[in-house]
Prior knowledge:
mainly alpha, 0% strand, Rna Polymerase Sigma Factor, Chain: A, Arc Repressor Mutant, subunit A
Amino acid sequence: MTDEQQLLTDLREQDPDAFTALFDTYADRIYRLAISMLESEVEAECVVQDAFTRLFESLDGFEGRSKLGTWLYRVAYNLSIDRLRKRRPDQPLADEADFEDESGLMPAIFADWGEAPEPVLTSNEAQAELAAAIAALPDSLRSVFILREVEELSTAEAAEVLDISEGAVKVRLHRARLELRERLSGYFSERIQE
């Protein structure tokens, strides 16, 4: 029996240590996904609570076709999307229309960040610029970027969470990286020249 199967068995038997272990493992990760999408600490905390509540209510029906963590990410993603739809009911969330136009994918400013001194790259100011650039990404690109680059999910896991193909995950991740590079190139090119 794998650790995941044992954890699932323990959860179904309502072992409090299993609930604690699951929460400790995934609560912060789910929160990061939700806050990246919702940009609201209160709403992100609600998503975390709702995701775990749904897991506990659905344990008996969980078939184990995916990992518990992947399932939790999917629930948190859907809960976040639901909250976004309530905020802006007339605005589409998918951003797919933006993907049709391939122009503008190459950065206008090229900065060789490899030349930047490490303190420039790791400063609080640089971290704030990166966070702002990530927050400015369209929802669909931001969610892929967070799942792949921050939470380090595999392409297959991210595709399962987002209910899109692995190819779409790769394309969105590539586009997210290009947008981030475009947004951050000006900032870093100024600091590299200093």
